[in-house]
Amino acid sequence: VTIARMTAQAETERAAIIVKSAERAAQQERDLNEYLAHEVRNPLAAAMAAGNFVGVALNEERPLSTDESIQACRGDAHVIQSSLKFIDDLLRSILDMHKAASNQLQIQERPTDIVHDVLETVRTVVDSKHNPWEFQIDCPAGLVVQTDPLKLKQIVMNLATNSRKFVSRGFIKVGAHVKDDTVSLFVEDSGPGIPIQKRSQLFVKYQQSLD
């Protein structure tokens, strides 16, 4: 009887471990889907908008007949290239979440020009045509730091695209300040700000305020 009871208990514990592993795998899959939807949406929207502008320009009666239209198409092509490059980098990093869960996440640090490698890329995706506000970059020229450029771009991109949702006029400013040996990046805008009652949710994933 004792042996049978111990065997039943062992089977119960084994079943509980299997269920817990399945639940963890399901949660990781949900996290991955949310991550992709959240991170890919903004650069994909920018690429699609730029593609639409190019399509309209090429379907005109005399396409690309002026220097202005040629420059506009070149700018749109740059937006498409930069946005797709950003998406490609993101897709290459989708295993990061699984690595983080198993404490294997690696930060790929390299010398990074804050303006060229980070802020200008953010401008390309966020600052689409006909915005009623001005996009500004405030950063010392030639500022290079040792960091993971993709992850830093993701952070600044998310903050800047959040600003874009709530700014109807004025500006969105991204930049960096240097004090002693510390570099601080920031995103500032002329929007209404975060309501006091929503600030406790500031670092909760995928939360936003539409107030």
From TrEMBL:
Residues 35-211 form the Histidine kinase domain. It catalyses: ATP + protein L-histidine = ADP + protein N-phospho-L-histidine. Pfam families: HATPase_c. Its EC number is 2.7.13.3. SUPFAM superfamilies: ATPase domain of HSP90 chaperone/DNA topoisomerase II/histidine kinase, Homodimeric domain of signal transducing histidine kinase. It is an enzyme of class 2 (transferase). One of its GO terms (molecular function) is phosphorelay sensor kinase activity. Coiled coil: none annotated. Keywords: Kinase, Transferase. InterPro entries: HATPase_C_sf, HATPase_dom, His_kinase_dom, HisK_dim/P_dom, HisK_dim/P_sf. This is histidine kinase. It comes from Amphora coffeiformis.
